[in-house]
Amino acid sequence: MTEGGLARRIRWMGVFILVCFVAVFVQLNNLQVVQAHKYASDPNNPAVAAARDSQPRGAITSVEGTVLAQSVKAPKGSTFAYDRQYPTGPLFGQITGTFSYYHGLFGVEASYNSYLIAHNRPLKSLGDLLTTSTVTDTVILTLSDKLQMAAQQALGGRDGSVVVLDPSTGAVEAMYSNPSYDPGPLASQVAKTVHDAWIADTSTKDAQGHLPFTSLAYQDTAFPGSTFKVVTTTATYEKAPQFVNASMPYYTCIPPKTLGGQTTPLCNYGNGGCGGTIAEMLPPSCDTGYAILGTKVGADNMVAAADAFGFNKQPPLDLPPSPFEVSQFLQPNCYQNAEIFLAFSSIGQFCTRATPLQMAMVAAAVANKGVIMTPHVMDQIRDSGGNLVKTYAPTTWLTAMSPQTASAVNGLMVGVTHNSNGTAAGIFPPSEDVAAKTGTAQVQNAAGQYIATNDWMIAFAPANAPKVAIAVELLDQPVSGTGAEKAGPVMATMIQDVLSAPAAAGH
Hints:
Beta-lactamase, five-stranded antiparallel β-sheet, six-stranded mixed β-sheet, 16 helices, 23 strands, alpha+beta, single chain
């Protein structure tokens, strides 16, 4: 090899080594600077896990200050220094979630883990540079323990949910479901206790097949029945106003073959006859008329209106998301481009499924002049000294309708409670000025027989200056019942409790 060739090889070797050094420097900078926070907070990081398991966590409280989750010193001989306790048990279990040494984090424990876990004290002085003390923060929820307990008692052990929203801010003031679960055993340091609780909470179903570990309020959908007619009404005003005052034909049952793809009759619940304009049909909840109205408004317009309310979208609730909580309208795996599917879906059956949270947001949209605020369970976060770390700033999620449409629909929902033929007539005292919509969704077995109903009501009050929007759902009720009969008393209790309670601090 010539001297010049050797020199070239040495130069190339030098360049290669330099490139390697640069690559190593870039990767070290990426790991230690750019990605530092990610790895430092990654729950799979052994150092993070060790710090998590050997330190106390911050408390979670209701808006009134009731402790819902806290860390206490573990008995001597325990593997870890602290036990996580949930003093209110199942009452808030589906909201707080649990901190489990064996299964990880759920609920608020997961969403706000970076505040609850022990973390370095913020630097406020030169002296702080010389210390490495850690702190935990307290997460204060928007939920009221008084309203949560009222919802639990009003459901009376029946499968169902209650969701209470502040329509002007999106704050969740109560969100309770039966069945629920106790997060305490899952947080135990005793492996058998955790194992038994996990099996019970994830495998044991009640008679209707519902799991206590998931919340019916925001993690499980069902046919919303006639409460969905509020969406169909809005779609008419916003997308097809020529049908607002059009009279739908009078039917007891729409005969087979009247609508495209129809093979069986579509009948009014209870087999009564009805028809007419929207103003004439909404108070008595005319199924046949609204089914035909939905087909006239059209699939594209109905989908656009439903989407504007949040259907077919992941709700931005600040709890760990689940694909099962997406409310659906005319999804491709159900809708077959036939009028009969659109007709049934327009009255909250077949290809329409919703969570109580979604239907509470439907009521809240009407109450809040068409605007849906982002739902949230966090109100404030404060440090151990009581200093404010973070507060939730209300934000708009969607605009479901114009203020003019909201005003019109508001008036129609008042008719449901005030008109003599309204399905919620006589449930609320006139002084509460409640606007509402009932729903009775029919549930079929595998043979196509109607075996139960899902009974609903959505409402807001006072109608002229709304303070609260509520959804109530009772699942798998006897076929003889209706939304007014089953969900009505629960709604009446919740409306009365909210309107009679002093305003909660924080939101």
